[in-house]
């Protein structure tokens, strides 16, 4: 099955390039925890003991197995194409630089369900006693949701214990292993078959559940990338693709936890060594996990623990029926896996961190996660609201994380880091100083006097082998800057790289600064509490709703945050206003927390912070990916005290200038 427009995806290549990755919200039809809870609540003590000793009894320990759709979605984005003759028994995914396999082997080891040849009974061989006795007869139609309600209304204490066991076994099989939408009819064949408990127990539930989850995983993202792009063109507010997963999704989660070691404890906790392996894990609440966090973790070799390509049985598992049943069906490792080069999947930048979690019911954050961790929720009653304040901010700034974690709205995918790569720049503190020997007239629009700089870049970009020079970034990096790939959306590394050049230019021409001002990287830094005390103003690249760059100018003397948004006219003022409310309270508390006012006590004020949008900000063309370009230009103009006298017609030139400046590792003023 092909998941993109091209039907000829090379073996070993991800179906979706990084540039085509998108945030998703999964609704899982599998209700493992709720089904276990219902069984424990409804069955009598004796009936529950009987269930515990039967084929699905071990799952009673999974009463707190939260669904983590964000992790599962990030896995599905990384599925790689493989040979047709191996498609029936295994799926392959790339995590960092590693390939991992999900096959019937891993499935049985994780779930404890057996494999084998299925011998399904014919309809005329099956009894329908349970249907006639408890569920209204053979002519009554019952969907999944209705059966949930019926199960909870049955009087199990008045029921024959064996009938109670049979109904509970069917309930688990149909609601967990065969999980479907609520409106689907229950599997009446299974309900009839469970009356013959010996036959029901011998069925290869590992195979039956594997077939359904395989089909669900392998088809679920088919053409979802194109659907996401088309919908987004029609509706710019569309920032997440929703879809359903069927079958035993909890088993897939448990396999991920087994295959990828070192997952953060805020995602999942390993309780103790148990078999089958699903019993070892306790997933954390999905609201603690967001798309960008998982995306960056899966791409970061320095944070990944051991990544297991396949799972192997331990000594205890080797004697279990589920392993004995599957060991003769072991799929071989395809030859292409042994020859696989991870670099085949290093592509252009990918959209990321849309500020939206991938599980139903989660809410977007309104403030930096670092600030929330200090102070918790903030009451809106204590906050003043300004009519000038702009629409829908779901994230303001960044949490305290190393900048190698690509926590951005438009991500540059991972490339193996060499030890000699230039380290990320620290926050640059710049004091106003007069040096008449280094005066400079700054005009970013006047063009380059030396056209050879443009010409050399053009030759290198088009592949001229005669251009002999070392360039730090690949051509794909510059394609995005020039707007020829990924809609021209700049990622953290583009923003970061140009801010580094601005910092170097500030040191070269310190007298060009008209005020005590500095800027941050695309992340808040641990050292900020010290460095901010030397300046009166701070410029911060920020993303709104994870899909749009803006610039925040923090004025420490006036207790104001000015927002430079190149798409103000496209935003809903009410949403914007409400989302900014908590920030006006929290920012001052954050400055207290990092010790800012201990060094600058004269700036401490009882007045609340105010967030104001600068309506005169130059505006980009709606529907373009030019926001990052505007952020860089506004930053440079403000740093050097220039009026914001440019507009959307200058974007093409600015893109070329940014590319050439980075190519030459110097900004030409």
From TrEMBL:
Every copy of the Ubiquitin-like protease family profile domain together lies at 438-638
Protease listed as a keyword: yes
- SUPFAM superfamilies recorded for this chain? Cysteine proteinases
Protease among keywords: yes
> Matching InterPro entries, A to Z?
DUF1985, Papain-like_cys_pep_sf, Peptidase_C48_C
One family name in Pfam for this protein: DUF1985
Q: Which GO terms describe its molecular function?
A: cysteine-type peptidase activity
Alphabetically list the UniProt keywords: Hydrolase, Protease
| Record-level GO BP terms | proteolysis
Protein name (database record): Ubiquitin-like protease family profile domain-containing protein
Q: Which organism is it from?
A: Citrus unshiu
